[in-house]
Automatic annotation (TrEMBL):
PROSITE patterns: QOR_ZETA_CRYSTAL. SMART domains: PKS_ER. InterPro entries: ADH-like_C, ADH-like_N, ER, GroES-like_sf, NAD(P)-bd_dom_sf, Quin_OxRdtase/zeta-crystal_CS, Zn-ADH-like_protein. Residues 13-325 form the Enoyl reductase (ER) domain. CDD domains: QOR1. It comes from the Bacteria. Gene3D superfamilies: Medium-chain alcohol dehydrogenases, catalytic domain, NAD(P)-binding Rossmann-like Domain. This is Oxidoreductase. GO terms for molecular function: oxidoreductase activity; zinc ion binding. SUPFAM superfamilies: GroES-like, NAD(P)-binding Rossmann-fold domains.
Length: 328
């Protein structure tokens, strides 16, 4: 089969090479799937660089999130059979940027029928993260104001849609007019271009001085630091990631005097600690997708030869929505 493999660590465009390798074989609790779509995620970038907490042995195939058609099942895989269309995480080193990949049956769920292969491939990580973050960790309520950083990105665009579905007023912070247009199309009530506007002042004005009840921050750095200046009394800043590359130092005295909460989210832990909640969340997301309330924003659909270049654009911050390889 054809696969993109990383033989030496570095930037995706240099580290990834096209190769022909044997198809992987599923072991106990695993599925072999024909890849229908594979969504690019920032962990794929970090693994190429050797800077992620998971460090597969070289060579490996990146691509941690897929939509696939079940081809074969290993032992102890109840409830799934050949031909099922599924989504979920891959089992490295046999990732999704290949014609076939391995998946962990325990964390694999049915692909929502209303989404095409690219959209289904992009649903699992981003929308599960958004749902757990907004509902389980931040306890977002109808009528509250939600501030989403990187609102036109893969994680942020999911949070915008989920916030709207929850009945919140959504403010999206983006970088540039193209991303502003994308966030507007997602239904954000206010769009702030950080290149030309001060989002702190814009949030204060939009909320009449109240501030944002929930801040959804996958960026870190200055985005986090500035958010502390416009979070509401008893607001919640949800720390989702550090795509900006800077992990901020938190002055806890500021949280004390303003009465706001700093809430962390590592969604992957729920897959191990509370898999029933993950499946319940998937059922809820499937209903929202069927009702037309959520639909992954797929900014680029890649052919196989373009995978490394597409992942590099994600690494460079030059993408809108999700970048997804789609099988022919």
């Amino acid at each position: 089969m054809r696969a993109w493999q990383v033989h030496e660590l570095g930037e995706p465009a240099q580290a990834m090479r096209l190769a022909r390798v044997p198809a992987p074989r599923p072991r106990m609790g695993e599925l072999l799937v024909r890849v229908l779509g594979a969504a690019a995620n920032f962990p794929d970038v970090l693994m190429c660089r050797g800077r992620y907490q998971v460090r597969p042995a070289l060579p490996f195939t990146p691509g941690v999130e897929v939509c696939g058609e079940v081809v074969a099942c290993g032992t102890e895989v109840p409830g799934l059979r050949a031909g099922d269309r599924v989504i979920g995480a891959t089992v490295l080193p046999a990732g999704g940027f290949a014609e076939y990949a391995l998946m962990d049956a325990a964390t694999t769920v049915p692909a929502p029928p209303g989404l095409d292969d690219a959209e289904a491939a992009a649903l699992h990580f981003g929308y599960q993260t958004g749902w757990f973050g907004l509902h389980r960790r931040a306890r977002l309520l109808p009528g509250e104001t939600l501030l989403v950083h990187a609102a036109a990105g893969g994680v942020g665009s999911a949070a915008v849609q989920l916030g709207r579905a929850a009945g919140a007023r959504v403010i999206g912070v983006v970088g540039g007019p193209e991303k502003a247009a994308a966030a507007r199309a997602l239904g954000a009530d206010l769009i702030i271009d950080r290149h030309t506007e001060d989002f702190v002042e814009a949030v204060r004005e939009f909320t009449g001085g109240h501030g944002a009840d929930v801040v959804y921050d996958p960026v870190g750095g200055a985005a986090y630091q500035r958010s502390t200046k416009c979070v509401a009394f008893e607001g919640r800043i949800l720390v989702v990631g550090f795509a900006g590359g800077d992990i901020p130092s938190v002055p806890l005295n500021h949280a004390l005097i303003k009465n706001y909460s700093i809430v962390g989210l590592h969604w992957g832990l729920y897959q191990r600690r509370d898999p029933a909640a993950v499946r319940q969340c998937h059922d809820e997301l499937t209903k929202l997708a069927a009702a037309g309330l959520i639909r992954p924003l797929v900014g680029e659909r890649l052919d196989f030869e373009s995978v490394a270049a597409g992942l590099q654009r994600l690494a460079d911050g030059r993408t809108i929505g999700r970048v997804v390889y789609v099988a022919p």
